[in-house]
Structure formats: structure tokens, C-alpha cells
Amino acid sequence: KVAVVLFTRDLRVHDNPALSAAARAAERVVPLFVHDPALPAGDNRRRFLLECLTDLKASLRQRGADLVELRGDPATEAVRVAKAVGAEGIGVAADVSGYARDRERRLERACADERIALKTFPGVTVVPPGAVRPGSGGGEHYKVFTPYWRAWQAQRWRDVEGAPRKLRLPDDLPASWFKDRPAPTGGESAARRRLTAWLPQLEGYEDNHDAMAADKTSRLSPYLHFGCLSPREVAARVDGHPGAEPFVRQLCWRDFYHQVLFAFPDLRRKAYRASAEEHWRDESDALQAWREGHTGVPIVDAGMRQLLAEGWMHNRARLITASYLTKHLNVDWRAGGDHFFDLLLDGDVANNYGNWQWVAGTGNDTKPYRRFNPIRQAHRFDPVGDYVRRYVPELADVEGKAVHEPWNLPEPPPGYPAPLKL
Ligand code: FAD
């Protein structure tokens, strides 16, 4: 018996339900990744993806298999490979974005045409979207986080699967199906090292996760995005340890937005709250200054420049910069969300646009009119200004918290702009 496992954003061997099921059911397994030119992803994420694939390939080789990499439409290619190797079935992780669901539908049709069995598996979230529903299970989806969090905690998600010990490829696969690349920093091995190295910080997570300069959050988001780590395994590994709850709660936010996207596929373009009022200004100069980190508000500029430099931004900075764009400059959340989506290593439709809508007041925030004051936020979460000095070199010589209000200095720092007019 031969099975094909189509990897998408579950780029790991540990706790990967599709891979484990194939390893159990078939004597030979063909792990496959199809590079899809139609997939929207910025350069940062593309680079990271290649690293993840290199690492996945090494892990599969250690277990006696390899990774087949092809280019084209994943549905067509997966079925082509399945036919070529005489596979009876294809396994794939179910996912929630419009793009992923369309891909799954095409795969379903292509498999049906060729009488190949298609099996979908969980693995992208801790609890599958749609598995927990309000109103004793009969409702559609949770619109508010706290009741979702309560129901989510009561689920049975703690059984984690290891990696298959041994995998066998069919004989004589074409050499052109395999790629070689240099050793990566992304991928499952780096993700597992990062998780282990970070775990001692778990106890301090609640107190430290908002301290922008300390940089004490896990930085696991790109790995979770590409599925280098199973979110279920991460949750199970910390569960019950001192300080775990606030961290697990963040993983639950991730699941929450996935079930929102599952129920509301237009999250990327349409206001989630139908009654939300939207009056955005066409402020292309302000938008450009924001993108480049030249708004003249240091905490906003520091966040935007961290994004440009690292393809990642601290969560508190994401909140401040997104709120400033939508609630101070009154620029459309879609423009901000698209910029983030383009650059973020962890950029995903559910978390990015779900959070943007939350901040803009069009989404799941129960207080949609809240507005973060960037200066107050700066003093609270970057009290001595180290985060700003790290990312805004024009302000590197301004000492202490004065860095947050350069307009009050006796001499304006050279090269740093005055705040945009609101
Ligand atoms: P930690 O604090 O260590 O949290 C652990 C994990 O929990 C994260 O890796 C992430 O998977 C999840 N998580 C934490 N906070 C949130 C949250 N608010 N919503 C959903 N999941 C969360 N996260 C993304 O993964 N992709 C995005 O595209 C994204 N866009 C965002 C846009 C805006 C405007 C805002 C305000 C937040 C966004 N987030 C996004 C959520 C959050 O900022 C990041 O997940 C977090 O900063 C990642 O850093 P970390 O791994 O160190 O987080």
C-alpha cells in the first residue's frame, strides 16, 4: 500500500496527524510539497518557507524517506504523483483560508475523478475550527473570545502524537522530484530548539510579555504559522506548568481567529461586524510615512521599523501601530493589514486580519471604540525607551523616556521628522 501526504502549512514530523496516519496505514509513504505560484506570500515568508522545507526534508531522510518537491497546482500535482506511484490515498491537513479551502475543493474533485481517496486531518490549530460551537453545539461560531476560551479549555486536546520512527518511499522515484538546499535556520528543528530554550521564561510570561524592550515573548509565531510546531503539542507541553495559562490563552486566541475565518471567509476584505461604521480617509502620504516608520511618533516608528528589519513585530507594537493608523490617521485597516501581511514571517489571514479588525473596531472587540494613546502606551510598555532607541537610530542618543516625546527636547534630533498632522 502506498499513500501520498501533501504538506501545506504543517511542515513537521512531530504530532502531524496526516503523516502519522499515512505511516500507520501504508507500507510506503510519499511526502510531497507543491510550490504553488498562485499562493500569496511576501519575500520574507517565501525565504522562511524554503528553510522549513530543507529542515523537513532532513527529518524525513533521517526516517528513511525524503521530500518530493514539485511546482504547479497542488491539486493537480498531488493527483499526478498519486497515480504515478500507485497510491490509494492522499492525506492533507485541513485549513481555513479561502485559498486553502479552494485548494481542498479542487483536490477533492481531482481525487474523485481518479478514484483516489482523499483524507483531511486536523493539525493547523489546537482545536479544529468548528469543533467548539456556542449554544450547546448548535450555534454557528463564537464571536466573542471569553466564552470561546471557556469552552476551548474543556476540550480534549492533550493527546499528542510523536514522529513516525520509520518511513519508506516507493522505489525508483524520479531524481527531478527532489531538491537540495543549504542548512536552514527556519523549520521544525529550529522551532523545537526555540521552544525548549524559551520554556524557562514561561513562568514570567504574564508579567513580561508586554515589556517591549525585554523581548520576552516566545517568538514562535512564524513556526506556528508554517506548522513547524504543532500548536496542540505546544499547548500540551506547557499545560499545567506554573505561568502556563496566560500563554495557552494566546494560543487559544489563535484558534479563535481561525474559527472566525472559517465561519467568515471574507475576513480579509469585509468588516466582520455588519453594523460597523467605516469612514476611512484617503491618506496616501500618511500611509506611506507609517509604512516607512516616519510618522514622527517614536513608538509607532520603532514598531514599523522592526517589521521592516525583522519581518516580525512585538505584539504590543502591532497593537499600537495598527491603532495609530486606523484610529488616529483614520486610514483603512485593509491597507495596514495588507502591509503587515506582505512583510510578516508569521503573516496569516486569520490572525492578521482578525487582529486588524479587532483593533480597527470592525471585528471581535467588545469595545470597538477603544483607542490606544501611543504616548501613554510608550511610557507604560517601554518605560525607559530602549525599544525605540533599538529601532530608530536618529533617536539613539536621546536618553531615557524623553525619547518618546522628541518634540519636547530643547533641540529636535537631526533627521527625525515632526509628528504627522492629524
Ligand atoms: P507569544 O506572546 O509568545 O504567543 C504565543 C503564540 O500565541 C504566538 O506565536 C501566536 O501564535 C499566538 N498569539 C499570540 N497573540 C495572539 C493574538 N493576538 N492573536 C492570535 N494569536 C496570537 N499573529 C500571527 O501569528 N500572524 C499575524 O499575521 C498576526 N498579525 C497581527 C496583526 C495585528 C494588528 C496584531 C495586533 C496582532 C497580530 N498577530 C499576528 C498576533 C500577535 O501579535 C503575534 O502572534 C505575536 O506577536 C507573535 O509573537 P510570539 O510568537 O512571540 O507570541
UniProtKB/TrEMBL annotation:
Spell out the SUPFAM superfamilies in the cross-references. Answer: Cryptochrome/photolyase FAD-binding domain (SSF48173), Cryptochrome/photolyase, N-terminal domain (SSF52425)
**Superkingdom, taxonomy of origin:** Bacteria
* UniProt GO BP: nucleobase-containing compound metabolic process; response to light stimulus; response to stress
Q: What is this protein called?
A: Deoxyribodipyrimidine photo-lyase
What cofactor is this protein dependent on?
A: FAD
Q: Which Pfam families match?
A: DNA_photolyase (PF00875), FAD_binding_7 (PF03441)
Q: Which organism is it from?
A: Dactylosporangium siamense
Q: Which UniProt keywords apply?
A: Chromophore, FAD, Flavoprotein
Q: Which Gene3D superfamilies match?
A: 1.25.40.80, DNA Cyclobutane Dipyrimidine Photolyase, subunit A, domain 3, HUPs
Where FAD binds, per the record, is at: 205, 217-221, 247, 250-257, 346-348
Q: What family classification does the UniProt entry report for this protein?
A: Belongs to the DNA photolyase family.
Gene Ontology molecular function, alphabetical:
deoxyribodipyrimidine photo-lyase activity; DNA binding; FAD binding
Q: How is the cofactor bound?
A: Binds 1 FAD per subunit.
The question of whether Glycosyltransferase is a record keyword is answered with: no
**In chain numbering, where does the site feature Electron transfer via tryptophanyl radical fall?**
W280, W333, W356
Occurrences of domain Photolyase/cryptochrome alpha/beta (ranges): 1-126
